Amino acid sequence: MNKLFFYVVYIGVLLNLPAQTGLAQINLLNKGHSPYRILLAKEASPIEKESARILQDYFQRVSGQRLPIVDKYSGPRSRQKLISIGQTSLASPNRNSLAGDSFSIEIDHQSLFFQGSGRGLLYGIYHFIEQTLGCRKWAANEPANCPKRTEIIIPPGYRVQEEPAFRYREVYFPIEEDIEYIHWHRLDRLEDLWGKWGHSFSSWISPSDYFDEHPDYFAYYNGSRNPDQLCLSNAHVLDIITGALDKAIQAKPEARFWSISPNDNPIYCQCTDCRRINDQEGGPQGALIQFVNRLAERFPNTNFTTLAYTYTSNAPLHLKPAPNVTVFLSSIDVTRTHPIPTEPSAALFRKQLAEWLAKTKKVFIWDYYTQFTNYLAPFPNVYTMQPNIRYFADMGASGIFAQGSEGSYSDMAELKAYLLSKLLWDPYIDPHQIIGEFVNGYYKNAAPYIMKYLQVITEAAQSDTLNIYGNPVLHHGGFLSPQKMDSYSTILDKAAIVAEGDPVLQSRIERLRLPLDYTYLQQARFYGTEPHGIFERSEDATWQIRKGFVKRVERFVASAEQQGANQLSEGGLQAVQYQEEWNTIFHKGVRENLASSARIIQTGPPFVQDFPAKGWRTLIDRMPGYHDFSYNWLCFYGTSMAFTLDLQKSQAVQQIELTFLTDPRHWIFAPQKVTIAGSTDGKNFTPIGDKESRPPIENYSIDRAVFSFEGTKEPIRYIRIVALPFDRLPSWRYHPTKKSMIACDEVWIR
Which residue segment(s) compose the domain that 718 sits in? Predict the structure, then answer.
């Protein structure tokens, strides 16, 4: 079933219902009174009991009437006024052929019947609560909104039967903390389904337990054994995981899936046996699929998942995943401005998906819906969601993990979660209708302004590139320019005025504004001493913090904590730590720099265009770099940094200092060597000094390396600087396609 995954039919004749089935409407509630009872089997299952309780609760919220729950009835079946839930004595034994999480709701005579498969019964109850009773669960950890009703009429021939587009549906946003939201919107949670999840190799075989005595269990990589991955051709590795898995299954028999997947790093085994299968299958995915298949053969009744991610993204040339193996294909390299079916950067992903689906129909998609480096950065991608998910369904994918900001608030998290949950059940619904429904219901009187904000920021972003590892600074000249930011803020100001007197709505508008406040602060670090920056000149020409800026930071941090922005990035930066970063910036102030009015003459390779910062002016803008290499740092990938500073006139120079970033996770290291020379005419240079770095030792923390040189006794005008990267990566961070990058934030001259 590819095109339509659910149907709702109201004309009983079309369904070939038995002739005696009543076609008259039924009045569940008439003038505030209901004669109905909820019927359960005497030996009702836990999910049937829960479904009855939930329906009873919401019916009472809407009508004021508490329907009794009974387990028997008397008199002819045709005269009953019952709401039958599950396999009751009133229900036909095999009334519906339901599978997966599907459900049905229908009338028979004067009774209403709910049936479902798996959690489908519960989903049917919530469908009825939403579509018939009129309640809405807009956001997690907020009560459902319910109208007051005096009449509830079920039309003649009413029947609903639905089944989901995907057998696995997860929306990884803060909604996961609210189990009612999960059930209401028919979603899964990984902790409920997986015995072991995600990148799992080290959790099956711990390097701390095995590496010292059995290095051969681990990957042979770049000439030596590496504890960060496993050797998948080693028979002992298979046996050890088999034993561990056997115990794990016994301890958690309810788990539906077990992940057998590489750790999240670029390392894979290159030993003779692993290389042989990889050569046959076109890459490291060969050894992985062969290994998982062997394990799946030992556990034929267990379902496994494995990751098609980075170096295992391509399907093997010949091998097919075993019948009880599901492949989890990641779309991590796709940019998010345009839908995946047409996005140029998604061409490889589209090819990979088609090739995996030619091997197996058990393919889940690991897709991405937030900016992981900056959860609060504006990321207007809601209108690409439906084309993407429809594409996955049309291609034949059977599950979606829609990764958002986990348990922390992120840009438009409520709307994104609501829309995604609807789409994962039915990818063919009208997203504009769902968006309009949500905005009008959640933002009430402020809805016109929120729709305007969503429209304006989405249209503006079409000229930029949304990257899940980007930041709001990169768009300072695009859809997040100061002028556009002002226009967005003006719209939300109007929304806030409408919300006055409604504390709940005010809080929702404040939460929606957090991304704009965060962008303003992040961009202020970039602008520094320029307009829109942190600092300004005082009347006595000294640098001071811009008026009101400290309070603005404090207000943002307090609001972020109050609104559930527990982490500002996937890396775990908390709001209180963000405040500490700002306190350090305020304390250090502006460091004067003799080079700030200099002219830079490029004499070597260009900087990395993907992270342009302020161009060459980055090196003389008086502003230091921070933890994020993509702004306030000028980057040079695999090449030297070479330029000449023209100080515009000859003058005494006491000290020259350069600061470089070290961020090994992004292959950024201090230069191997920095050389400085001076000149009065720009032609004849005299050496000032050179310094070298030792090869980096294994350490993944972000740090800075300072190269400081004494100046010259005689005045100079020109300073030539050359920084050389290490010609090869350290063995502990080796990658066959990566090179060392150097990143410099400023040339400080005193």
Answer: 594-749
